[in-house]
Amino acid sequence: MKIIEMLLKEMEQEAQTTRKMLAIIPHDKFDWQPHKKSMTVKQLATHIAELPGWVNITLTTDELDFAKGGYIPTPITNTKDLLGSLEKNLAEGKAELSKTTEEILLQNWTMRNGEQVYFTIPKVEVIRMAYSQTVHHRAQLGVFLRLLDVPIPGSYGPTADEGF
């Protein structure tokens, strides 16, 4: 299996679990946050839904410069909007990944804030980092939901809520 096929397969596998997690967020808990330094449920869930879009961004640009601004979070008011955002970003990411080449995957990509460079790494590593960020933030969301007494679906196997 070639690297692009493996990345597409992993993207869809993680999307299946992400859909389950985002779908169970109670509408009345979008503004809840477990700590003042934490994101709200809505901010965290919106970020998770947007992460598949990083594949598209990575493959169509050479850098992301936070100092240039321009980021506007997707307006989310309910679970339907949230899942729609995920599907849109997933479709865009898959489409761009499907038409790229391994040569492009090996080109460098930079994340910076003006003159401060956070990293410069091959685009394939940025895509893997986006996948890892999805898993990381999805786990964070799981903790948020657990604190709200929402039963958690399994990611890679059953949870205590599923009779583990």
Write the layout of secondary structure elements.
Blueprint: H1 3-23, H2 41-50, H3 53-60, E1 63-65, H4 79-99, H5 102-105, E2 108-113, E3 116-122, H6 123-147
Parallel strand pairs: 1-2
Antiparallel strand pairs: 2-3
Could you characterize what this model shows?
With 164 residues, this protein is mainly alpha-helical. The protein has one domain (3-162): dinb family like domain (Four Helix Bundle (Hemerythrin (Met), subunit A)), CATH 1.20.120.450. The protein contains six helices and three strands. It has helices at residues 3-23, 41-50, 53-60, 79-99, 102-105, 123-147, and strands at residues 63-65, 108-113, 116-122. The longest helix has 25 residues, at 123-147.
Features:
3 strands; 164 residues; 10% strand; Four Helix Bundle (Hemerythrin (Met), subunit A); 6 helices; globular; mainly alpha
Offer a concise description of the structure.
This protein has 164 residues and is mostly helical. It has helices at residues 3-23, 41-50, 53-60, 79-99, 102-105, 123-147, and strands at 63-65, 108-113, 116-122.
* Beta-strand content estimate: 5-15%
**CATH homologous superfamily name?**
dinb family like domain
Range of helix content: 40-55%
CATH topology: Four Helix Bundle (Hemerythrin (Met), subunit A)
The CATH class turns out to be: Mainly Alpha
Rg, Cα atoms, Å: 17 Å
Q: Tell me about the biggest sheet?
A: 3 strands, mixed
What integer is the average pLDDT? 95
Quantity of strands, as a count: 3
**Overall tally of structural domains:** 1
Structural class: mainly alpha
The dominant shape is globular
CATH architecture: Up-down Bundle
Low-confidence runs of at least 5 consecutive residues: none
What's the order of the H and E elements?
HHHEHHEEH
**Helix count, DSSP H or I runs of 4 or more residues:** 6
Distance N to C terminus: 33 Å
Side by side, the strands of the main sheet go: 1-2-3
